[in-house]
Structures are given as C-alpha cells and as structure tokens.
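Hello,

Our lab assistant flagged a job as stuck in the queue for most of the afternoon. It eventually completed. Since we weren't sure the result was trustworthy after the delay, we are filing this so someone can double-check. Below is the sequence as submitted and the structure that was eventually returned. Let us know if re-running is recommended.
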Amino acid sequence: MRLKHPEASLKELGDLVEPRLGKSGVNHRMRRLEEIARDLREGNLTV
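-- returned structure --
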C-alpha cells in the first residue's frame, strides 16, 4: 500500500484496506514488516 500511496497518511492507508484499520493498526503492521525485512537481510529469519 505504501508503495502505491507514498503520500498517504497512516489514517488514509488504514481507510484503503479491508477491514479498515486505525492509525495504530497501520503503524503496528508497518513496524512488524520492517522487523521481518531486517531479520531477512541479516539472515536471522528464513523463508
């Protein structure tokens, strides 16, 4: 979503998904994705 809507606020991103998410829900999911990406880069997580 962020790639398609780089200028969107967290609230706007939350409104774009189904079911809708609040700002905190979007923020939580973004942080979790960043953690997963970091772990993959560092070799701490395998797919």
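-- support follow-up --
The delay was a queue issue, not a problem with the job. The result is valid. DSSP finds two helices and no strands in the chain. The CA atoms of residues 29 and 44 lie 19 Å apart.
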